[in-house]
């Protein structure tokens, strides 16, 4: 299995992919630093790409998916 497949494979515990988990982790950290304020997407994207290679479109799609599954 290559890294692309692993990054997009849902976890059996909660159904989140590795990419979704990293986005949520970065979002949580940024919100804590900003005092629970809204996190600008550009700031979140900068933090996410420090952990893994992801396009802006992928980030937008993940954020939309997470909002739809709420």
Structure description:
By secondary structure, the protein is an all-alpha fold. Helices cover 60% and strands 0% of the residues. It has four helices and no strands. The model has no long low-confidence stretch (mean pLDDT 90).
Please name the defining characteristics of this protein.
70 residues; mainly alpha; 60% helix
Quick one: biggest sheet?
Answer: none
Secondary structure tally, helices: 4
- Provide the structure class: mainly alpha
SSE string: HHHH
Helix coverage percent of residues? 55-70%
Low-confidence stretches: none
Strand content: under 5%
Count of discrete domains: 1
From the N-terminal CA to the C-terminal CA, the straight-line distance is 30 Å
The radius of gyration computed from the alpha-carbon positions, rounded to a whole number of angstroms, is: 12 Å
Number of strands: 0
Q: Which whole number gives the mean pLDDT?
A: 90
Q: Shape from CA axes? A: globular
